[in-house]
Amino acid sequence: MQSQFFAAINQLCDEKNISRDKVLETVKAALRAAYRKDYGHKEENVDVAIDENSGLATVYIIKKVVKRVEDEGMEISEKDAHKYDKKAKIDDEVKIDVTPMNYGRIAAQAAKQVIIQRIQEAERDVMYDMFKDRENELVNALVHRVDGSNVYINLDDKITTILPHDQQIRGEKYYSGQRIKLYLDKVIKTTKGPELLISRANPNLVKKLLELEIPEIKSGLVVVKSIARDPGVRCKVAVSSNDEKIDPIGSCVGQKGVRVQNIMEELNGERIDIIQWSENMEDYIKTALAPAKTAVIKLDDRGRRAKVYVNPDQRPLAIGKQGQNVRLASILTGWEIDIMDISEFAGAPGTPKVEVKADVKDVTGLGLDEAVVEKLKTANLTEVAQLKGLSAKDLMEVEGIDPESAVLIAEAVKKVK
């Protein structure tokens, strides 16, 4: 072995952030294995010492001093022991220098693969110790290099790992030297060593960026209730406030939208919709489907399924491109959402039906709820003839007439000759 080897060890420790003692022990273990393979046998008690100044390695066989030698590989008589240590006594251990000629060159060659393997194991242990307490955190990273769909990432300038293709933002271009933020989901141990599960696509990345950018969320005054995300394209975030004086949506959006804009830029232009969370599921679903306007919502609490009836011009908006809007709304609310045309509402199971005579002239004869009739009368709509030609959408413009009542009125008027 050459003295330059020690300089290489020191450099390796600095680059890989590995303990110097751990590396030296790794080297010694490799040299012991190399000696046993080429010169001794696996039962021998072998020790290796490395001179810190010269970098030269010395190999010793350690034997126990006994009265009667039964195993020459492990034991030595007191008389023979005095050749190596004049003070040796029974039950002492003596070291016998057995360093072969040209051992440095032979050992370095034989131990090379073992050293590499042990160093990699030590590096993985350092990675696990460094990140095991940082799960569910936002981490800063530097793109080391890009090889096809594989993006190699440097974390804390020491650890290199891979950002999997399925955890990348769709359409985002990565380049060497690029600084990005990642979400560290988990640190797991595998048969190949510790593995960091990092992501740019996880919804929690948005949450962590919101906490970083918005003080009200960091302090707990504004709470992120749910996130639904199509990475790189669109994201819906439901928020609520623990303080009546604080507007949760305004806090997240910021003055002239600067807060949410900063997060969108970090996510490669991904559109982020901030909506108001509500305990009332009808209101929550209605808000989640924005910008589409809903007419009637029917909830099936047992199956957690909602039928949402919309006007024809709102149906494309409610569904969204390739079903994106309704899919994100469903994830956000935790309910299955079916988008239905308003024309299907009157015949929907469980929908109240009204009996109407063919020759009714006054709205009181339409069989509607008394409260609805009073609303029509308040709006000076007392005769059926006045309602002819008005659609459900038109009737919803009447003060006090909700979407469900508007549909029932329109269907009742159709039955009048």
How would you describe the overall organization of this protein?
The structure is a single chain. The protein is of the alpha+beta class. The protein has 4 domains: 4-129, N Utilization Substance Protein A, Chain:P, domain 4, CATH 3.30.1480.10; 132-201, Nucleic acid-binding proteins (OB fold (Dihydrolipoamide Acetyltransferase, E2P), Beta Barrel), CATH 2.40.50.140; 213-344, K homology (KH) domain (GMP Synthetase, Chain A, domain 3, 2-Layer Sandwich), CATH 3.30.300.20; 363-414, Orthogonal Bundle (DNA polymerase, domain 1), CATH 1.10.150. Helices cover 35% and strands 25% of the residues. The chain contains 15 helices and 15 strands. The strands form 4 sheets. A 5-stranded antiparallel beta sheet has the order 7-6-5-8-9. Strands 1, 2, 3 and 4 form a 4-stranded mixed beta sheet that branches. It is rod-shaped and about 130 Å long.
- Number of beta strands: 15
Order of helices and strands: HHEEEHEHEEEEEHHEEHHEHEEHHEHHHH
Mean pLDDT: 84
How does the helix and strand content classify structurally?
alpha+beta
* Number of continuous helical runs: 15
From the 3D structure, determine the CATH topology of the largest domain. Answer: GMP Synthetase, Chain A, domain 3
Beta-strand proportion: 15-25%
Helix content: 25-40%
**Cα end-to-end separation:** 107 Å
Give the count of structural domains.
Answer: 4
**Shape, per Cα inertia axes:** rod-shaped
Unreliable stretches, pLDDT < 50, 5 or more residues? none
Fourth-level CATH superfamily of the largest domain: K homology (KH) domain
Largest sheet: 5 strands, antiparallel
CATH class of the largest domain: Alpha Beta
- CA-atom Rg in angstroms: 38 Å
Strand order of the largest sheet: 7-6-5-8-9
CATH architecture of the largest domain: 2-Layer Sandwich
